[in-house]
Sequence to fold (659 residues):
Amino acid sequence: MSVEKNLKSRNMMKFFIVMAMLLGSSVASAENKQITSPDGKLVVTVSDMDGRPSYSVSYDNVLFLKPSPLGMIANIGDFSSGMSLEKNVSTNKIDETYELASIKKSKVRYVANEAVFSFTQQGKTIYDVIFRISNNDVAFKYKMYPQGETLSCVIKKEATGFAFPDGTTTFLCPQSKPMGGFARTSPSYETSYTADDVAGKNGWGEGYTFPCLFRNGDNGWVLVSETGVNGGYCASRLLGHKGGTYTIGFPQEGEANGNGTVSPGIALPGETPWRTITVGKTLAPIVETTVPFDVVKPLYPAKGEYTYGRGSWSWIIGMDGSTNYKEQLRYIDFSAAMGYQSVLVDALWDKQIGRDKIEELAKYGKDKGVALYLWYNSNGYWNDDAPQTPRGIMDNAIARRKEMKWMQSIGIRGIKVDFFGGDKQMTMQLYEDILSDANEYGLLVIFHGCTLPRGWERMYPNFASSEAVLASENLHFSQGSCDNEAFNATLHPFIRNTVGSMDFGGSALNKYYNADNAPRGSRRVTSDVYALATAVLFQSPVQHFALAPNNLTDAPAWAIDFMKEVPTTWDEVRFIDGYPGKYVILARRHGDKWYIAGVNAQKETLKLKVNLPMFSNGEKVRLFSDDKVLQGGVKQIGIGKKQELQLTIPCNGGVLITK
Ligand code: CA
Fold:
């Protein structure tokens, strides 16, 4: 830009500022605008009281979020105060259907009211806040406009917050400090939840990872998360403040060894990710929500039809040493015997098996209908010290695409990329680059040691699943995790797993986490029925179960038989009963077949009557259940006229009902 032009535009700007001040002085009262859900129960009120943008949320006339801040501070201005809400609000009705085999519900109809609230500062339009309200979900994002000739900006800080009513309790897991944990790989969404805690804390000083569950006393529940995050922004967390307000926090400076910026940059006009608020009187809307997928769109078409399904992996029982040719052959045979579609070959295969032998394994598997997934370390210059190889391939496009071409040529089904450690914008770009390259070569992608997937099932058609949870590896690593296994399982369907596929890698039928299934190391304290129930409770279109070849002979036949028939894709989910941290019972449908699964983490045996309208009077179903000492079994029962069943689930036990 020429100096002359620059001066001219500055003078213009001064003129507008003076005009805006003159105009502004005549506007005294704050604007208050409302938008409601299609059924009218969920109400969002947007305001510019005192020049500070805010919104509040109520459901059925009960307040769920008090006036909560909106806005941000960018490197081109502070847009959190001195803001005016435009009188004109443009509205739009949304009624869309989409199909997505990889999430909890295969066909979704999304009906919502959209409203675009424009905020100005000194007469200039700065951003719109776009709200979409469906019957139980609020989603909102910012659309930032160019300022004069400025076509990009850096968001230094968001004011965006969530102010909960007094008495709200929390179900949260803390964000960990950067470059900590195993081989300096944190943060990777692998911390423990605290259930029913008081509001107003801030985790370990670094806030909380999404999604975040809140209980508004007896009024109901709120799940806060975000979706639509890609290389266009960073992934965020929630920072807790005294009084029960939580605000959007950006990644920590030290993530990715200090490389990359904390503050996301956006081109103008440009948008932030969606922040989502799911509200329910019961937990049903929390369990059944599809909002993470409703408001995003596919970013590219699928290269081909992707095959999901079940598989086995030696690593969970045999660890790094088991990644050898002979053991992988044995697991291919095992997957074939189970009728499974894959084997996941974990870390160190490049050194302990080698590429030539991997080709042989791929060919051997192909003849048995078993495809391979290969593990990779994500790392480049920016992160961890994890020595597990292959390293230095997934971090750059040249090596990555060459490797993927080779994988495609030998029929590899997908990759599992591990050890990311961070939510910076550059890391989000890496996730996206791996996904889009993998799609070019027809590969499915599983992430481990990673961030929460935020709408990725729909955005990236070859995205299968992510860890982002204290997963099955911890059951191998420590008895403490085994002792807490059921407690954690009662949280995931309401929190982590309800917003995205969760690669837990569980359902072990070994009594002990070692290859001999001998009494040493970590001992599983949960029942066999529990293992079966979690295969239904935990949703991921690709499941590598923690089963071992010895389970064909040392596990009960009814248990192994069920693991042969359990699906991994679902058409529908229904919340039946539960309380996070105590117990959970839900129903999933595959085709016309329902699976009701439940587990109990409470010391007391759970006895409750459930209503199962998905079964008809006189229908015969199988009931898998545990006795007092967690000895499981299956029996056939008939469904009565009232479609009710009395269930008994001991501590660390499970229940499973299906035709
Ligand atoms: Ca992990």
Remarks:
- The pocket of calcium ion is lined by residues 190, 448-449, 467, 471, 473 (CB under 6 Å).
- The two ends are 72 Å apart (CA to CA).
- Confidence is low (pLDDT under 50) at residues 1-8, 17-28.
